[in-house]
Hints:
The chain is an alpha+beta fold. 53% of the residues lie in helices and 18% in strands. A hairpin with a 2-residue loop joins strand 4 (150-152) and strand 5. Helix 3 (60-82) runs antiparallel to helix 4. The mean pLDDT is 84.
Amino acid sequence: MSSPHNKEDEVVAAEAVDIGTLLAENASLQDRLLRALAEAENVRRRADRDMEETRKFAVAEFSRELLPILDNLQRVLDAKRRTENQVSDALVEGVTTTLRLFLQTLERFGIKKIAALGERFDPTLHEALMESADQSHPPGTVMQVLEEGFTIHGRLLRPARVVVAKPMRSDG
């Protein structure tokens, strides 16, 4: 019949002079075991968090590459609105539908457009490309969006590139 302990345990037990020493050693071993279990649980939780974050943001680089396509679709529609050229309504309708589907697909993956126009300039979400003196907009307000910005699951993917209203100069 095999013993449930090893030779080292027997040596330690034989050298122990009293039960108090054994109890203290037992308490120390229990404490070490509980700490090791807690550390293992923390490592598991960290790994789970890291995996979830990787899953959520794995498409970020791919999405960033797709955004210029979205920009170009929007430019086609903007150009059509600025001209009275009789471009086929079917073409405009097709581009509009493609743009709408594209935005819906991005949203399913957690990618959302940043609201910028008319908002207070926020350097964490907006990139100011120009300032313009304009009395119709309060200073520090986004008055024009040159390129839409996007977030992915609340994290900045690309800042909105904007024109910001600056205070009017008073030459007096």
